[in-house]
Amino acid sequence: MAAAWLAVCRARFEEDYGSRPHIVILLADNVGWASVGFHRPPELPAREVHTPNIDALAAEGMELARAYWYKFCSPSRSALLSGRLPFHVNTFNDDPTMVGQGIPVGMTLMPEVLKRAGYATHFVGKWHVGMASRSKQIPVARGFDSSLGYFHSNNNYYDSRRGQGCGVAVDLWDGEAPSRLNGTDYEERFFCDRTVKIVREHDPASPLFAYHAFHTSCVGWNATTDDLNLQPAWDWYAKFPFIDDDDRRKNVAMVALMDACVGRIVGELKATGLWARSLVVWSSDNGGAVHAGGGSNVYPLKGGYFNNWEGGIRAPALLAGGFLSMSKIRTPAVLEGFVHAADWLSTFAYLAGVDPTDEAARAAGLPPIDSLNVWPLITGANRTSPRVEWPLTPLSERFGEEHTELVGGDAAYMLAPYKLIVGDKIAQANWCGQIHPNTSVLWDSVNDFTNCSWAPDEGKYGCLYDVVDDPTEHHDLAALMPEKAYELYTRLRDAQARFFDPDRGPPQEAACRLANTSGWWQPWLP
Ligand SMILES: *[C@@H]1O[C@H](CO)[C@@H](O)[C@H](O)[C@H]1NC(C)=O
Ligand SMILES: *[C@@H]1O[C@H](CO)[C@@H](O)[C@H](O)[C@H]1NC(C)=O
Ligand SMILES: *[C@@H]1O[C@H](CO)[C@@H](O)[C@H](O)[C@H]1NC(C)=O
Ligand SMILES: *[C@@H]1O[C@H](CO)[C@@H](O)[C@H](O)[C@H]1NC(C)=O
Ligand SMILES: *[C@@H]1O[C@H](CO)[C@@H](O)[C@H](O)[C@H]1NC(C)=O
Ligand SMILES: *[C@@H]1O[C@H](CO)[C@@H](O)[C@H](O)[C@H]1NC(C)=O
């Protein structure tokens, strides 16, 4: 039945659009809502942000006004690649030396699905979804034909090293072997070179799937401090002497370099003629890091990276490429419908003409995909988004010691247009200014709390917002609409009954030993 239906869709699709698009995902890291030019109010100094290439794509393509992700990195990437909501794949990526970290081995990932439709598949940049086993978890074991990138998060931008509890080693890997590009350049540059080369050498007879996951504007590991800090390329940093706050200046410089890479990749797609059939998604993987040392800005949204306020989960995003403007597509300039990271899998599978149902996961007893095809929404064929609800973060959230001050304890559920947040002490309960961070007022976001406790006996029903009418979350509706709060709370509890939280296993000393002796973080199991 499903197959027959798919065949009908496919026939209609072929009639409408010809053959499969080239799909290019450009995923930025922690880039805030206000860190791109197309979200800046015109009265602000234009030179504050410098994203001419991304702005041009937004202008000629389509802004995705409600692209939702997890409140931090690995669950977002796991959702994108697996087509699951984080509740069903990963809401917290533990120590990378645990065998079961990242995306469970039995789940089928996006490149494997697209390969069934003949796609050539390539990965560049930040992986962060599991790497213990060479034959099961690294990118080339999960459907990518080629891969250049790092396995963990936050390696150093200049030498690609990462200290990770049990040692310091280079985190950079090319296909099935260590990459020797470490220390040869600022890593965003050789990542960009690789993707440009992939595009240049692609045989247009087959469709292309390229997933370029930028490091920018996430912090990198610093050997001197054994901590994380913003690491711009100094030539780009030098272009912004007029920015008073040093973190803001570094962040703006990093985002500007990323924008230049977007320009190079798009330029190569055009030079090779692939552009006409390309569908490009540019998005951040979550909101901006607005806390001290993050340098990002999510104005006018509330909160930021690590929390479930809109500034943490609603990312700047756009769609572009010749495929989007092909005949018969009546795309709006700004897509207001909700789209979750998990929804790209079914959307691309539909465009590729393959069924995304994950039989392997079913056989392994793992949760099925949650992904919903949003292509009818994108084309304007159906103005209603199929993505109306999802659980964000469970009650009694588990989180790492590193981030206790920020993450943790903000359970949440979305039932559009409402979002319920529950927790006693939810950080970053405030707003960035238009120019943030700045040298005149420091917002200590980590210590700025709201109590959204669930205590019906005391007349407290969490914090409830209508994120469509009140996108900046200034008006808590919980006391006015306790029945609505109850409805979302009940749905959250129901979702929690099906929460996927496998034992990820203990940290493995073998991982550290191999990193120590070889000099590279790498899979330690066959
Ligand atoms: C790359 O890393 C290896 C292993 O740590 C090291 O020996 C080598 O010097 C590094 N290369 C550069 C150019 O820094
Ligand atoms: C690492 O931290 C030290 C001390 O704060 C600082 O001087 C240095 O510039 C940092 N390195 C990078 C690459 O940011
Ligand atoms: C439009 O999409 C919504 C949400 O998926 C669905 O309920 C509705 O049936 C669709 N309408 C048509 C005409 O297909
Ligand atoms: C939050 O409110 C609840 C209910 O009134 C109360 O029990 C709790 O102590 C408060 N927590 C904090 C951190 O203020
Ligand atoms: C400076 O930053 C603070 C905190 O984000 C903000 O309240 C203030 O409005 C900012 N100043 C300007 C000029 O944007
Ligand atoms: C790896 O090296 C670090 C630093 O020298 C050391 O603390 C750690 O014990 C080593 N781990 C293993 C498993 O060899």
TrEMBL record:
KW DNA damage (keyword) present: no
CDD domains per UniProt: 4-S
Keyword Calcium among record annotations: yes
PROSITE patterns to which the protein is assigned, alphabetical: SULFATASE_2
InterPro entries on file: Alkaline_phosphatase_core_sf, ARSB, Sulfatase_CS, Sulfatase_N
Keywords assigned: Calcium, Glycoprotein, Hydrolase, Metal-binding
Pfam families: Sulfatase
Domain Sulfatase N-terminal: 21-354
Family of this protein: Belongs to the sulfatase family.
Name of this chain's protein: Sulfatase N-terminal domain-containing protein
